[in-house]
Amino acid sequence: MAAPKDPRPCSIADTLALVGEKYSLLVLREACLGNGRFDQLVRNIGAPRDILATRLKRLVDAGLLTKRLYSERPQRFEYRPTTAGLELESVLMTLMAWGDRHLHKDGDRPMVIEHVCGNELVPLVTCSACGGEVRHEDLTAHPQAAGWTVSGPAAA
After folding, report:
1. 61: closest CA among 49, 48, 79, 75?
2. How does the average pLDDT of the chain come out, rounded?
3. What pLDDT is stored for residue 70 in this prediction?
4. Integer angstrom CA distances of residue 87 from 4, 7, 74, 105
5. What is the C-alpha separation between 93 and 113, in angstroms, rounded?
6. pTM for the model
7. Domain range holding 29?
8. Span 87-107, average pLDDT
9. 29 inside domain
10. Does some domain include residue 119?
11. Which of 86, 66, 89 is nearest to 78 (CA)?
12. Which helix (H) or strand (E) holds 15?
């Protein structure tokens, strides 16, 4: 078997191809916060209007956002997260927590999220089977793509 010529098949790469650029994740942040109107998105994200329109169309086409008419004259829409879009909220919370720890070490965090329990949310990735915290040293990768090992393409 010849070694694969393409990069490793990867769900991370596939997801990044859809939402891995700055404005897409920020659109999802704003939609999850309830700010789904175009003017709100422009103001809160700072994206150029044409780029924002392109990102919104892509996220709607991918099923991460829905588009709902809220004004007929002039015709205006708001964007709301779908179930798939809301599933990315935990990723956004984890990215925010990482930024708080590593980029805002002085404690001057831009936002704090409160959980329904009344405490500040500190996201934690856990195993759904045992409930244990996910730590690097406890993980073992098992490549499922034909022709690939953990270290790269399998020998011919």
Report:
1. 79
2. 93
3. 93
4. 32, 26, 32, 28
5. 8
6. 0.88
7. 1-87
8. 93
9. yes
10. no
11. 66
12. helix 11-19
